[in-house]
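Deliverable D5.2: sample structural annotation.
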Amino acid sequence: MQHFILPHPLEADKVRIFDRNTLQQMTKVLRFRKGDKCVLMDGNGTKAEATVEELHSKVAVLHVQNRSVSPAPARKLRLYCAISKKPATFEFILQKATELRATDLIPLITERCQVKFLKKQERLLAIVKEATEQCENPFLPEMHEAMELDALLENLPSGKLLAGDPRTFDDQLKNIKLDATEDINLIIGPEGGLTKEELEAIQKAGGTLFQLGESVLRMETAALASLAVIQYA
């Protein structure tokens, strides 16, 4: 059943949708009709079944029933991913990281980043939203502002700090013991990797450097493989 995230609580028995993109998907892509059903989510854990009562080009009216609330994730899984030189690469990482249920997405600026800022922020937010709907995750990941690696290391959030590198590492990721309830802060470097000085700074801050395997991976492969190992290994 198709899922949609709405930017407001699902407390009322009737919901009106005015968002142009959602309406276009309902009318043009899915070709909804009166009586069709879908699932609405608020992005904070609440889901509800909904039935289309009215559907017009500028508004849809849905009847809401059978609400349920999912428990919050047992831990935060924060992905600090260096900004790639190609926008499409970073968009792909955000999409797949959302599907792998990262809770926070933080663009990271490192020494070897060829791009130091993000363009088309609204597009990135839309990609994360659509990926959340597609994978039926009741919790919408939080998309943060870009930050410098130095700033992260100076003010570390709670949890375990991990950073991947194919040549300088403490252990393979699969061998590192991870508590199911401990927050995880995962750093993925840019094309060309993190510098020696950055890796040393991460270790000095209490971080663990890991290797995924013998292959040198593209940053998008490394990001997704790391998330998959953390979530499912």
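Annotation notes: The chain has a mean pLDDT of 94. The helical segments are 20-29, 87-99, 121-134, 149-154, 196-204, 219-232.
The annotation will be released with the project's public dataset once the embargo ends.
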